[in-house]
Amino acid sequence: MCSPHCPEAPRALSCDPDHHPIEPAVLPLVFAMKRQGTFQPCWSCEGHLGLDGTLWKIPRIWFYARSLVAARLLTEGLGDLYQAGALHTKVAGRGDFLRPE
User: Fold this and answer.
1) What letter would DSSP give residue 88?
2) What are the pLDDT digits (tens) for 49-82?
3) Which of 44, 47, 74, 88 is the most exposed place for a label (fewest CB within 10 A)?
4) For 30-49, what is each residue's pLDDT tens digit?
5) Phi, psi angle pair for 75, to nearest 5°
6) Separation of alpha carbons 19 and 52, rounded Å
7) Where in the chain are the domains?
């Protein structure tokens, strides 16, 4: 896959492409995480607005990581980007550590 803009990217990056393709608002981040190789995204949500138009559920990306430090750095880095105004909304990250077999 060449970029998050490829037409097949939402399905190719999903573990369940028929029922849950990756949503457009989180696709660039999921693509970057997958391409980097340290993270394996497993679930995402681009967030949802309430009936009044305000953000009801923040965007979320759940992932597996081979390094606990990498997972913490990613979630802290996303928080820093939000605080600096580089992200329009907070992104909640949930990482689970994979132990080598």
Assistant:
1) S
2) 899 988 888 888 888 888 888 888 888 888 898 8
3) 88
4) 898 888 888 888 888 888 88
5) -65, -35
6) 28
7) 9-97
